[in-house]
């Protein structure tokens, strides 16, 4: 090129600059719309306060579920439905915090999968409080110290959490929601760990069971030590040079650990279902589930008598779990989940028939089906 020639006015970077400018413009619009939504949320709070109701309820589980479902229905990509729901949940969580931050008790300590489930359901603006045992989560909600509690109820590979089910028998709390969490276990070490000399691996007993095959293949000689929670395992290895822990990503971030191996669970579809417990009954959301507990005498045909009304009224059962009753010999308690809300006519008819056939029937709650 001769000295009097000018370079092209259009450089290769110009399309990138234009795209960045477009993103900045979109970001400005998103920010304005989020602020507008937050102001609407504040107006909703003012209207509720002016209604004169003795106890104003800001968080509405059925309304949250409806908003998230609509967000996913409108989603055209490239973000997936779960990611879109997560973004909207965080926006709603932040807006709700302007009205009144939600206080949530969960089975702790911090860094457990139950805390992760709590934040997935309520968003990062919720105030979460760790409890040492499931009983304490129930007590905190019953005492009004928190708005809601989050407890595990079943795992896809290890089965039900019986302690959670037992607590419902003597409690007046209601199930207000559910959340399902994909469980990914990671092997993690601290900054003092000698990775070539690991002889101890800490974790919750269920996590150790869910990673048994991987541990057999990679650390067959390491001692497997069960502790109360994965988060406790993560904390414990901070001072042990020959130890590792199995826990979730949140625990690694919280306690400053390095993930040595990712997703070491034996079953790739490993997931845990958690229940949201509160004091109020939840109105229909359009896609709901109901949980009940029924007591029956141990007699021939008792289970068929209990379940027949659901089949006859075309109510779809999703889970049936049985436990020996603590109130008397040869009496069994059945925990049953099914699709539909207690205000649904078919559900009403089925439950009326069931009530005539059992010694005791308790409705634990109708609640929105978990959104991803």
TrEMBL record:
Predominant location category: cytoplasm
Domain of life: Bacteria
Catalytic reactions on record: prephenate + H(+) = 3-phenylpyruvate + CO2 + H2O; chorismate = prephenate
Cited SUPFAM superfamilies: ACT-like (SSF55021), Chorismate mutase II (SSF48600), Periplasmic binding protein-like II (SSF53850)
CDD domains: ACT_CM-PDT (cd04905), PBP2_PDT_1 (cd13630)
Function: Catalyzes the Claisen rearrangement of chorismate to prephenate and the decarboxylation/dehydration of prephenate to phenylpyruvate.
NCBIfam families referenced in this protein's UniProt entry, alphabetically: CM_P2, PRK11898.1
Protein name (record): Bifunctional chorismate mutase/prephenate dehydratase
UniProt organism field: Simiduia curdlanivorans
